[in-house]
Design brief:
3 helices; globular; about 100 residues; alpha+beta; Alpha-Beta Plaits; Tscrpt_reg_AsnC/Lrp_C
Length: about 100
């Protein structure tokens, strides 16, 4: 599995819709809105390095409202905690 972290600058007026469209792309596991010089960070997880060439330039970069991207490829994972479980702590059922 190849993991890439993609920093995305987006049209500010379209950030929520850009995030939703990027999240819907096959190979994108998560999209986060963030503070600072970026607008979104997308986590890409694909079986092969060559698949990044399809996901990022052919799909992510073509989402209307994406102004620019910067891609970082992960070498190793030092933490494999379950983010979904961590974010669900303290939430009541049905909320």
């Amino acid at each position: 599995m190849v993991t890439a972290i993609v920093f995305i600058k987006a049209d500010v007026a379209r950030i929520p819709e850009v995030a939703e469209q990027v999240a819907a792309i096959e190979g994108v596991s998560e999209v986060y809105s963030v503070t600072g010089g970026l607008d979104l960070i997308a986590m890409i997880r694909v079986p092969r390095h060559d698949d990044l060439a399809t996901v990022i330039p052919d799909h992510v970069n073509r989402v209307p409202g994406v102004l620019s991207t910067e891609t970082h490829i992960a070498f190793r994972a030092y933490s494999t905690h379950d983010l979904e479980a961590a974010f669900s702590l303290g939430q009541e059922d049905g909320v």
